[in-house]
What does this fold into?
Amino acid sequence: MLENIRLSFQGIWSHKMRSFLTMLGIIIGIASIISIVSTIKGTNEQIKNNLIGSGNNTVDVVLSGQWELDIYSAADIPPGIPEVSEETRQEILDLDSVENVTCYNERRTSDGVFYQNTSLSEVAVRGIDTSYFETAGYVIKTGRNFIDSDYENFRKVLILDQTAADTLFQNENPIGKTIEIKEMPFTVVGVVDKAMNFEPTINSITDYYTYHQNQSAGYLYMPRASWPIVYAYDEPENVIVKAVSTDDMEDAGQKTADILNKTISEQQTDYKYKADNLLEQAQKLQDLSAATNNQLIWIASISLLVGGIGVMNIMLVSVTERTSEIGLKKAIGARKSIILGQFLTEAAVLTSIGGLIGVAAGIGMAQAINKVSGVAVSISIPAAVIAVVFSMLIGIVFGLLPSIQAANLDPIEALRRE
Amino acid sequence: MILKLEHIYKDYIQGKMTVPVLKDVCLNVEKGEYVAIMGPSGSGKSTLMNIVGCLDRPTSGSYELSGRDIQSLNEKQLAEVRLHSIGFVFQNFQLLPRMTALDNVALPLVYSGVRKKTRREQAKAALTRVGLEDRVMFKPTQLSGGQKQRVAIARAMVNRPDILLADEPTGALDSKSSKQVMELFQKLNDEGVTVIMITHDSGIAHHAKRIVTIFDGELSEQEGTVSE
It folds into this structure.
């Protein structure tokens, strides 16, 4: 077998040009498949990252109304929904799939938020606890975080997210500025930003809505202790859970929603806690892109078929050329299976080399696509291995007919020919 | 008795005609004999050589090689017989051009499943036996005709076959090389190798101890050459 492989390399090397042209079909086929697969994988990972937020694994569990309207724009609080108690919070934290949990109050499209004389109706205000930033994946960019004394003393302090800071202050330093909320002066002490930044790629209107539903003009965060000063007491809260892993996100979100829904009184049927299932959304988008790309793979496979036929053709030529060699080998005692094995090995080695070159070319192509068009690519090692094995199989399948022909040559006839 | 052909007939079918090529051929060869089969072209000597070499089967008759009934063997077993019991030498050497002399000689050992190291040793020994120990790594294109034929003889001998079967071994050689090859055959025969040589050249045939002639598919012993 090793001897056969060595001889095959020798044979291929002695016909460099011909071997290369024969391989070309396989090379092109494998290269296109590898580059397509890399693009699919890259796009999928990007979709997942964009939606899930760079692997932060947080799930929003939000109180949603029957009509999906922004419930907190109205002043009235839906009855029968209690604050999240310490026991409930602990129960959520005890879930296997949950790593961390944080609760917050929220007002969207808040009226009565002013900076100097400008009304800021587009910003959302959140009252947060101490674990919020860590759980939701934010880091302090400038200024400081809330400290225990902020909570203890009900300080009227604010932290802005980057979007809010950019909208409100453009070139000014926001730290120390005063923002009025319902006529109460709040002092900005810090600016936060996502721990891991990401740039969503917007390819369709669906992507646009997916990424922009959460992006208002930004968020203002205040200590939850200060919330009742401007808003109401005993207000229901939303929850953010951080799952242990990306795969646990669905489970964590679902179970948290279930626990929270148990606390809602039975009379209240209009509102329920619902977990955002970003993973599912990501899956849907991935399926969509995979469906189109699978068709591309089929088209690329045609080139592999053509390549295989090329291999068969050149192997038939090779058998004819080497008739006397085959005759001699049979005369000195080579069994049919030896001749068969020799030609099959040669075909398999030829296409395997083609496959290897094809994988290399495919990776190169994928990188080029990435450079030129900015489409995300990710090289799949299993796909590369499968591609090489598959090209070897092509060699064996298409080399079979010529090899059988060689094995069945009549040695007398074969030796007579020169 | 190493080789025993009895009442061998071989017919070829050409269209609707049946052409008899060998007619009632009987030939016995003892171990250690040196036999030349001589005949003009078209006499059927190549067909006879193919049958003796287990490349072809007779239409009827029986063939025993080293006590083995060749008629009853299947294709795979025939390949085994060719590998272990017969050493072929061809008119046009039939060396594989891309391989060195050593690799050419070692080829039958590859088919016998001999390990690489042993293979190289035995092939080297065989090349030494034909006087080419200094041409081991040469490729056929770097060798003269006589040297090529000696490589081919080394290849034929490397598996220690029962008979050495040579088909016009000097047909493509000049007289000097022919003489060398004949001397080599003589030397091998002196060492106990059974040699069967097919030729149309009576000058060459006379190197053998025994000459049988074939004409029109019929074999006849030439007087005075029987060594028994």
Observations:
- Chain B touches chain A through 25 residues (CB under 8 Å).
- The mean pLDDT of chain B is 90.
- The helical segments of chain B are 45-52, 75-84, 101-112, 116-129, 145-157, 175-190, 202-205.
- Chain B has seven helices and ten strands.
